[in-house]
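Thread title: Can someone regenerate the structure for this chain?

I was given the following input by a collaborator and told the matching structure tokens would be attached. They weren't. Posting the sequence so someone can regenerate them.
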Amino acid sequence: MTVQPETTLHFLGTGGGRFVMTSQRRRTAGIRLTEGNTQVHIDPGPGALVFGNWAGLSPDKLDGLIVTHCHPDHYTDAEVFIEAMTKGTRAKRGVLAAAKSVLRGAEGIGPSISGYHQALVRDLVELYEGTSFKVGELGFTATEAQHSDPYTVGLRITTGNGNIGYTSDTGYFKGVSESYNDLKLLILCTMWPRNNPLNIHLNTDEALRIIKEAQPKACILTHFGMRMLNAGPEKEATYLAEQTGVPVYAAVDGLEATISEEITLKGPRKSDHQIKLL
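Best answer:
Regenerated them for you:
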């Protein structure tokens, strides 16, 4: 009997925006997604290489790399990861999936990954809303986002343990929640707290609307700006859970979320107790 391997999300960094990025008050290392022998890194900002290695997640084990848009808190370590994923450029392997702005430049920004590095990978995927691709048995579909980089996308991820959504950076817009129905876990990039509107990012009030509309089984908040960190992401997560009845957790740097029949969380310290989110 074949046992379905667990799906694990390693939140190597939970910070977002230029001030958190430059201060490293929270890391900006992105998320490593693993299932069985398949590893994919999503949005490798500054620190992704260092903190991935610290977590025992060597970049040469990568099978895929995804960059949702052309802002440095999402792309800076991508070229280093490509060199590792291709075994020091000696093997044409791996998937690079990235927005048009990242690969070719657009609207005065980018490209942020050189043509040389793009040519190293086996499969190159340019992401637009609706673009689908696979890395191993993991399926990915780019979802609509509305951000200052007009080619930004979110992700809908199909795993052996249920569907995952990742909003990336986006403001709230009519229809955003339609991309994130029927999810076991929704990862909301929530930059600012309640009563602090920001057109091109989500705040807690807008995260509340998405949770109510999409009705995921559980949510994890990440990608926090300075105002959110000052307000306390944990307080905002508790508020969202109370308002929606959906389990909501504010990620910390080094958090591991393991998805099987349940969703369990483990903090980065040996003394951290495992938490059952779902």
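The domain at 7-276 is CATH 3.60.15.10 (Metallo-beta-lactamase; Chain A).
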